[in-house]
Write a structure and sequence with these properties.
This protein is of the alpha+beta class and 193 residues long. It is built from four helices and six strands; from the N terminus they run H-H-E-E-H-E-E-E-E-H. Helices cover 49% and strands 18% of the residues.
């Protein structure tokens, strides 16, 4: 069928032009809205990531500072009960200090009679690092529950006299990471380098 009249041809050209303009406008609008939405989502996720990273870093820093401060102040035998204070004030499940002569103080009351702090992972990690650090996960000597410890060496007269440790269960770490929940369908997890 041919369009034979001028009126029909003008109507067809006009209709095609309007439909083409509307399609072009719709495509351009979709592209702009999609790009802006994607950018907004990326900026929001970056802000959430930065905020949660900062929260975890502050938590780690606060624990490390508490252990380092205790390592500076504690004396053999802990007559001022600094270890108990560190546990209650800083939220560690277990706090302890061990000296090179194998003496120790701990908030754990049921340690075996032959307990040797110098053989424990928290002690060896603190001695090896020579500065405040975080241990690899290890099993508790009594319960076997996995812990990580914030440790700091006790430096006295230029030498290391022992190590102070504040332990947190891996469940405690999991709870901190679990609080990273930017959307209802998201989750947080920890990976190494």
């Amino acid at each position: 069928m041919m369009i034979s009249t001028i009126r029909a041809r003008i109507l067809m050209i006009t209709t095609c032009a309007v439909v083409g303009c509307l399609a072009t406008a719709a495509a351009a609008t979709y592209a702009l809205v999609s790009a802006n939405t994607t950018r907004s989502i990326e900026e929001n996720m970056q802000a959430v990531l930065s905020g949660n990273t900062l929260a975890v870093e502050r938590w780690v820093d606060a624990k490390a500072r508490a252990v380092a401060a205790t390592a500076q102040d504690i004396t053999p035998g802990d007559p001022h009960e600094v270890i108990k204070h560190m546990k209650s004030a800083d939220g560690f499940q277990i706090t302890q200090a061990g000296w090179l002569d194998k003496s120790f103080v701990s908030t754990v009351t049921d340690l075996p009679a032959n307990y040797d702090p110098t053989a424990r992972p928290w002690f060896t990690a603190g001695m090896a690092a020579g500065h405040p650090t975080l241990t690899q996960p290890y099993g508790d000597s009594v319960t076997g529950i996995p812990y990580v410890s914030f440790v700091a060496p006790m430096v006295r007269d230029g030498g290391t006299a022992g190590v102070v440790a504040g332990a947190v269960t891996l469940d405690g770490i999991r709870d901190v990471v679990k609080s990273v929940h930017p959307t209802p369908a998201s989750l947080g997890f920890v990976v190494n380098a």
